[in-house]
Design goal:
Elements: H1 21-24, H2 31-59, H3 69-80, E1 95-97, E2 102-104, E3 107-114, H4 127-132, E4 136-144, H5 147-166, H6 172-191, E5 196-206, H7 209-224, E6 230-232, H8 237-243
Antiparallel strand pairs: 1-2, 2-3, 3-5, 3-6, 4-5
Helix pairs in contact: 5-6
Length: 258
């Protein structure tokens, strides 16, 4: 029998007030009071977002519960110390990283990253991973992008596509890109759609390097047949592994991966 353990974490990045001491001189409001107010607002917004996510999951008949701090730390501990009993320090095992694999507490890990989001998806398309390997983690990192930044980026790309078409580069791919940009911007302005940044990883674990390599190949080959291309990570493996921990993902780190 197989067991599936699903953890959904929600993280927000509050725009903390960086007011200097100079701007606060002569005012009754102290630095501590301003940060306490900013923290209370960020916590309230996070709690409201968590409640909205829970409501959506319950509407889809997906029972869920909020994890207490201890259980969240237990999940991080198991990932960082797969062979140890729960102790005080969360990270207390040796980690060896090279171009071949990542070894955490003597267990070999292979980090696989999805090259690009497939054009078509369907329910259960990644269940192949569960059937092929005895133990693995499926990581979905999703960023809800800032609409203003997305519009600026899309408008810049649209201007580039227009210049290429006007300059005589009447290529099918450029015309297709322009049509897709027009459709995306229309959905954002008219329908209020949001743009998401998505990263998907598969972390395969095994007792030996050869077994981890074999299971990694099985996953790559199986998912390629359904249109999901995966790349085996080498030098970036450790960083991506740490970002796969609960609340470890920060979209700002993505710019170092390009």
């Amino acid at each position: 029998a197989r067991a599936l353990d699903v953890t959904f974490t929600l993280r927000t990045f509050a725009p903390w007030d960086r007011a200097s001491f100079r701007t606060l001189l002569g005012r009754k409001t102290t630095v501590e009071a301003k940060f306490r107010a900013a923290y209370a607002k960020a916590k309230r917004e996070l709690t409201e977002a968590a409640g909205a996510v829970e409501s959506v999951l319950e509407q889809q008949a997906m029972a869920c519960r909020r994890l207490p701090e201890r259980e969240l730390l237990d999940r991080a501990f198991r990932a960082l110390n797969p062979r140890r009993e729960r102790g005080d320090p969360v990270a207390c095992s040796n980690v060896v990283s090279d171009e071949e694999s990542l070894v955490v507490d003597g267990v070999h890990h292979r980090i696989l990253s999805m090259v690009e989001v497939p054009r078509e998806t369907w329910a259960g398309m990644l269940s192949t991973v569960v059937e092929l390997v005895p133990e693995a983690s499926l990581i979905f990192n999703v960023e809800v992008c800032d609409p203003h930044s997305v519009r600026k980026l899309l408008q810049a790309k649209k201007r580039l596509a227009f210049c290429q078409l006007s300059g005589g580069q009447d290529k099918v791919d450029v015309a297709t890109m322009k049509d897709e940009l027009d459709r995306t911007m229309g959905e954002m302005f008219v329908d209020g759609s949001r743009v998401l940044g998505v990263r998907v990883h598969v972390i395969v674990r095994a007792e030996t390097a050869d077994l981890a390599r074999e299971q990694s190949r099985l996953v790559v080959n199986a998912l390629s047949r359904i249109g999901v291309d995966l790349a085996e990570e080498d030098s970036l493996g450790l960083g991506l592994f740490l970002q796969s921990l609960p609340l470890g993902y920060d979209p700002e780190n993505d710019r170092f991966l390009k």
